[in-house]
Amino acid sequence: MQNHAYSRLGSSGGGAAVPSPPSPPWRALGRRASAKGGWSARAGAGAARRAARAVLAALLRRQAVFLFAPLLYVAAMLLYMGSISLDSVPRIISRPAPGSMYRSPQLYARLRADMDADNATDALATVWRHAYKGGIWRPCISNNTNGLPESNGYIYVEANGGLNQQRTSICNAVAVAGFLNATLVIPNFHYHSIWRDPSKFSEIYDEDHFIQRLKNDVRVVDKVPAFIMERFGHNLSNAFNFKIKAWSPIQFYEDVVLPKLIEERLIRISPFANRLSFDAPPAVQRLRCLANFEALKFSKPITAISNTLVSRMREKSAENNGKYVAVHLRFEEDMVAFSCCVFDGGDNEKKELDAAREKGWRGKFTRPGRVIRPGAIRMNGKCPLTPLEVGFMLRGMGFSNNTAIYLASGRIYKAEKNMAPLLEMFPLLQTKETLASDEELAPFKNFSSRMAAIDYSVCVHSEVFVTTQGGNFPHFLIGHRRYLYGGHAKTIKPDKRRLAILFDNPRIGWKSLKRQLFNMRAHSDAKGIEIKRANESVYTFPCPDCMCRSNKSEHPKSIQAR
């Protein structure tokens, strides 16, 4: 009957149905066998599902069993691991993080023979190849011949910080006083517990030259007149004191300071370091440059000893036509401690530097949550270069061991140990202490700013200046050298991140290292002729255009005496 129905459904049109032939007997047997096997499989699957449901139901009724499942897993793993021989387990080799180890001594020891054999190159003859991009460098600080209008009052500032931070304060004070048509009182140097130098303005700078050089642009007096002081009980602390935010624009002085100056006739600004924005009109930039590069000359005693040391350095470098290299090295204990870098002193070094950090910056480095990663600090180029690294770098840049080096620095951390490799590489190395006698240095020895002024002067006149760390000292020197040497700073400013990678590479060869350092030297040569960009210090990038364009007529009318 099934076959008959199938044939009827399969017929076409309305024709008569044709009956299907009967199926063979073996097909019927196959169908019965297949039906029996399928039933057996379905029966087995159903039994498995019923068993799984039963197990799950039992577990759900006993939920506490789930709490023991992780323990059972861990126990099984321990049993499994205990059955494996430790000899067959691969060992994990722990390697120190990049930069976490001070590898420079090992690299120096390995490459020293190659370095000594390669001593023919003399970089002093070929170090500077680029010329100022703007053509002929004409540092234009035009003199004002229009005369000065009546003064709006007196400005008294307190310059804080070290030598070059005080220099910033002086130059900014000249610019503000000139812009406001005020009379500047010779700045007072604020005594600081770090620098511990009680020197006055006239003991570091030539005060008469300062006043005379600025006389056509800014009135400068050495003290406030008595008739003004009478109003304040002859006590400067009674004068109104402005607390001005760092990097304030010159417009703030016109809008806020000038009215009070006209009202009081005498104001104080304390402290005054970095209280004027780098970005300023040409008239202000011109006064800054006039003060820094022309008006500020060191006092006669400092100039005399500095000229003596420059002459002696040129005598030491007679083989190189009197040319020498000046290096500003910052590897004093406080600098090493503040950097939080690790060198090769072990536990003793750690104890010493921890104590120095706590003494100088109580709690700064030990506060909760402070994480110090010495390796990351080094690889980021923030570690001070050691004397060994400075010497290694210079030799790689092509300076031979007969190059005369002048080292400007404070007291080097563990000097006897750390200076030894640098002296091996450059036996003609000198400092102010080795060039001058104790008697010659006696008037300056206990005054940090006067000693820094001597270093500054000797570095200015070097053929090459090498800076190893940031700060006001190199920034002012770079600008001063640009001003003196046709727009070229003649300064090597190494890429300390790149140096960290090179000195951390235990497999680098001398030729490869030297090639990389030569490229670094060439980069400094190209960077030395850069022109000032916006928001950069005119003390580092003296801009002839800013100085040439400005004149007194640029001052706002409101600044004239009322």
Automatic annotation (TrEMBL):
The keyword Membrane applies. Keywords: Carbohydrate metabolism, Fucose metabolism, Glycosyltransferase, Membrane, Transferase, Transmembrane, Transmembrane helix. Residues 1-30 are annotated as: Disordered. GO terms for molecular function: glycosyltransferase activity. It comes from the Eukaryota. InterPro entries: FucosylTrfase_pln (IPR024709), GDP-Fuc_O-FucTrfase (IPR019378). This is O-fucosyltransferase family protein. It comes from Panicum miliaceum (Proso millet). The lineage of its organism: Eukaryota, Viridiplantae, Streptophyta, Embryophyta, Tracheophyta.
